[in-house]
Amino acid sequence: MIPTSDGHQGEQTLLTTRPTRYIAFHYYLLALLSLILAPLLYFHPFILDAIPRYTIGPVTTGDILLVVFLFLALYSFVRAELKRATTFYVITDNKIIRRDGILSKNTQMIPYTQLERVDLNQSLGQRILHIGTVVVDTGDDTMKIDHIPHPEKVQQLLSQRLGRRAYVMQR
Q1: Residues whose CB is less than 8 angstroms from the CB of residue 112 and which lie 6 or more positions away in sequence, other chains included
Q2: What is the crossing angle of helices 25-43 and 61-85, to 10°?
Q3: Cβ proximity of 105 and 167 under 8 Å
Q4: Does pTM top 0.90 for this prediction?
Q5: 149-153: long-range contacts, CB 8 A cutoff, minimum separation 24
Q6: Bridge partners of residue 55, in order along the sequence
Q7: According to the model, what pLDDT value does residue 23 have?
Q8: Euclidean distance between CA atoms 164 and 158, whole angstroms
Q9: What was the pLDDT predicted at 60?
Q10: Measured between alpha carbons, how far is 63 from 43 in angstroms, rounded to an integer?
Q11: How far apart are CA 2 and CA 35, in angstroms?
């Protein structure tokens, strides 16, 4: 569930989003490799002839490796999904908010009055997938809005807010 309000009255939420699964790509890759290695090592133990084959009752070295790699795959997948599911970005008409964490909650807020620069970072692969990272700079602090879909729209929305603030301050 994505939070839509940060509790401040009179504030309008302009955008609420979360990162794409690309934010935890390395965890998904580890889960995939573990799922490939587990049955490979179990059904073809000759691949790792350097590992001694022990038997403790009915349990063999292949059984232990299978369980270890399946556990690693499950752990990696759950960790990746939790990282993505617990990170939220909220853009209101007054500030930018980043919330993340399960047990240890972190909230970072940057009001538009402190905003100095809004940058967009995309690799070639991210440009093809239409994802990227928007970096918000206040001069003293930065906030990364990591691996979001259609980052150019978010950058445009924030740049418009930055432009309005600059115009209002000139009056």
Answers
A1: 94, 95, 96, 161, 162, 164, 165
A2: 160
A3: no
A4: no
A5: 149/17, 149/20, 151/120, 151/122, 152/120
A6: 60
A7: 86
A8: 10
A9: 79
A10: 10
A11: 31
Per-residue pLDDT of 38-70, as tens digits, reads 888 888 767 666 777 777 888 877 788 889 999
Residue type, 6: D
φ/ψ (deg, to 5) at 122: -145, 135
Residue 139 in 3-state DSSP? coil
CA gap 126, 132 in Å, rounded: 6
Low-confidence residues in the chain, pLDDT < 70: 1-9, 45, 47-49, 164-171
**Cα–Cα distance list, 30 to 11, 61, 70, 119, 143 (Å):** 42, 21, 11, 31, 28
Q: Which pLDDT value is given to residue 161?
A: 82
